[in-house]
Each structure stands twice: as structure tokens, then as C-alpha cells.
Specification:
heterodimer, A: 269 residues, mainly beta, 2 domains, six-stranded antiparallel β-sheet, 10 strands, B: mainly beta, Jelly Rolls, four-stranded antiparallel β-sheet, 3 helices, 11 strands, 37% strand
Amino acid sequence: MPIDYDPLEEGDALNAASVNSRLTAAGGAGQGVNNLSQADLERRALRQEHLPRIITASDFPNGLVKLAPITVVNSSPYINTLNTLATGAVPVPGYQTFDLGAPNGPYGPPAAAATGWRIIADSNITANAAEITFGPLTALTASPGSIGNYRGILIRLGVSLMEIGHTGHGPWGEEGIAVVVGIGWEDQLGNRSVIERSVRWFNYHSTVKGSLDVFTFIKAEDIGNTNQINKIFGVISSASWGATSVNYDSPVIRYYNIDIIPIRAGSLE
Amino acid sequence: MPNITIPNTPLVDGAVADADPVMRDVYSPNLVPNSLEVINGKLTNPNRDGWTIAPDDVRRGHFSQSGTASATANQDFFDDFLTLTNTSTTGAIQDQSMPIPGCSITFFVPWQVTAVALNWHLSLITDAGQLTPNTTAPHFQAGKTWLQLFVDGYPVHAVRRAMADGNWSMAYDPASPDDFHNDYVRTDTRDWSGSFVYDSSLGSTIIPPGNLNYIERGWHTASIRIAFPPLELLPISPYTPVPGSGIKQARVKSRRMGYTLIR
């Protein structure tokens, strides 16, 4: 509120109390310059010094980015597939299936062929995973929708492809073997999901380039009303649209990086 | 700067009046905000009473700023001066990698920010000097071009890509110059649409101590740099490299580097 200053006038007592009250009105706790309101300021008067940060640091205690360790020369092949055990002409991709088999599933490269996603983690070490823990942030789906203080969360993932292991050749062309990557999230209860619109197939005889990059924007409706999100991660697998063979070629990756950019829009509390 | 705390109230009736404490309440230019002097341009966010900040209250660029550099002309890099002498994480990689014009940018951070987000894209094709047309060769065998992000001149090792060769579209046999080695099975132009965020959690893992932190006020740089590691230095699994061969030339086509400051 504006400084409600009561000036001393002729006849007023000039004593400790009268001086105290005026100093308090100008700069006491919660008063005067310690409690400026919108009406006290000219339009566009605020500069960056007067503004809060748009990203609340306590929401992301582990930071906004996670990088692969540089001490590992080469990750093992990710021999998990989305449809190893599927039959039929067009196997159904298991976009919500995680490979929980030993060791340390779904983190890191698996030791044996299995079905489902693996969370990218060099040398099967969870601490090295392409994963960021934060929040938890509560999603509210009522318009305009929010996740914590944010309208949504932009997630970007980059993976360096080293090789594709030659354990066998599948068909070429549009039914060919592919490296598949995507972005997933975890709720406060530990339930994992993959944002299906983030999933991208890289067929290695056509478009594998050395860098597998995907991104997605997570909205409140992806999380569900009043549900919480506290982790995001990158997932990888191999797959084929047309083959039923289990002899899939497996991606060998090296570096990866994943980051969060919380998107804030509208007014700031 | 936090809320001010006026130290000399309450005055006490009956005590000897002392002008100095009273005047220090009104004006005392200290680092600790303890007088009304903070009105002289030192008010900060805690002085706000919690009202919701609307777009009309702020000025352009105080929450975020951004910029982009780009180029489209073909640019050729040759192995005569871009071949790495080793692949350690310091030394050669910093001294021998070359920034790609158009995929590099210099920008100013006007005040400390929460994070700097970088986004880039580049397209390139590499010529690994294949002289035998249509020879069946394992994919990725002939050579790779290393591309790596550098911030303020320091390499970000986790943001390196080895772009497999797309060689035969550019190669020809000197004994038969009309014989171009197009191989339509192999991939051709490579693209890298990369991204990176720097925040305080990275700290000296990226920028060594004693150097300007990337999120602090000042001028900063970001660039994608290119180098050709000789094949004998690359990890060999699952292929056997061919000593003496490798990337001969890389032609960088369109490229872009952008930054966004996030307060």
C-alpha cells in the first residue's frame, strides 16, 4: 500500500511516540517501502531487480539439466526391443511397456533380450541415468491448466549414437530396424509413463544420423488432474514395424543430455 | 536486497534525545538496508506486497532474452588442418576443433539468470575418400565427423556427436572422374538439431573454476566446433577401422545457433 504518512503539524506532540509512528509508517515491517503495492508504481516501472525469478529454485533442486558421464568409453548395446516377442505382420509397439528385468531394470542396457523400454543409463548405473528428479509438482487440468507454477514443462533429449550392433539384419525400407527413443515421466507413487507423442523412430538404413534428438511439451492433462510429476527421463529401444524376428540390431550409444525448461505464462504471483 | 529494518525505533520517552540515531533511520547508505535510503533505487522484489505482477508492470526482456545466428552458404572443412592428434577430453580437442561460422554466437547476459538455453541445427555431408564405387562396406566404417558444443571456449563433452559418413555422393575416382560414387542405400546429408541448458547445477563441471560462470553477467559464447578424429583413435567396436583413412572433407550446409536467457 502507499506510504500513509501522517505529517507532524503545529500543536502535535513531538515526542518519541510521534517520531516512532512516522518512521514505522515509512519503513516498518510490512509497511511503507516494505509493502509496496501495484498502485504505488508507474506503468512498466519494475525492472529485473524488482521481479521474482520465473523458475522457482526449490522446484528443481537437482537443476534443469543432466549430462552423461564422460568417463565411460562406450555404453553396452541396448538389446531390449519394443516388440521382440510379438507375432504377426505388424507388431504392436509397446509404448507403455518397461523392461523391468534384471539387472537394474528399467535402467541401463539390459543383459539379455527383453521387451520394453530401458531408461538411458550408462553402464547400467542409475545415478548416470538420463533422468531428472524434481518437485513434485501438482497438475491442475482446469483451464488454462498448470503443473505447479508452470503452464507446462518442455523436455528435450539428445542421444549420441555410436553404432548399431550387427546381431542380425531385419528388413530394409519402411519395415526396417529402427532405434526408437522417447521421453517418459514418473509420478509421486513411482508409476512410469511414456509421452507417446515424443516417441520417434530412426530407421538406420535411412535416417539414423549419429544424433537422436526428441522433445516434448508435458501438459497438465498428460499428468492428470491433481496428480503429481516428480521425474522425467529418456527411454530407448529398438523395434521394427514389420519383422517378427528377435534378431534385432541393437543401438550402442555414448553421450546423452536431457533438460527441463518450465514454461511460465500469464501473471506472476 | 531484503526489506529494510529500521534499527532505532522505538525511541523512548524521557531518554535524552539524540539526533544521530534518528537521522540514521532516515538516511544511512549501508550495505545492510536499515534506513529509508533504499528508496534511492535499491528497492527489490521483497519490497513488493505480494500483488500479482501483470505484463503491464514489466519491461520487455526482463524475464527472457534471445538471439540467433545463422548461415546458409556451403562451407568446406578439410582434413589438412582439422585432424585431431588425440581424443583426450582436454588439449587437442580444444586446440584443434574449429568453430563453425553461423553455428556460433556471442551474447551478453545483462544480469544473473537461472539458465541459458541453447538450440542449434546444422546440416552437413562428409566425404570419407571412398574410391571404390558401390563397394559393400559396413555402415559407419569409413569415417566420422566430430561435432561438439563449446561454451565460453570450453568443451561440453556430453554434447558431442560423431556424425557417420555420408560419403559417396561427394567422392569420385580420380582415374575415372566421371564415375561418381553415389550409393543410394547409404545415408547422405546428416542433420543435428541439438539443445543444451546450462544452469548452476553444472557449475565447474563445464566452466572451470576461476572463469566467468555462464549464467553470470557478461559476454559469453556458444559454438559447435568440428574436428576429424583419425579412425585409429575411434572406438573400434563393432567394426575394424581402416588406418590411414577417415574423413577427408566435410561440407557444412545450413546452420543456426540460438540462445535464450531464462531469468
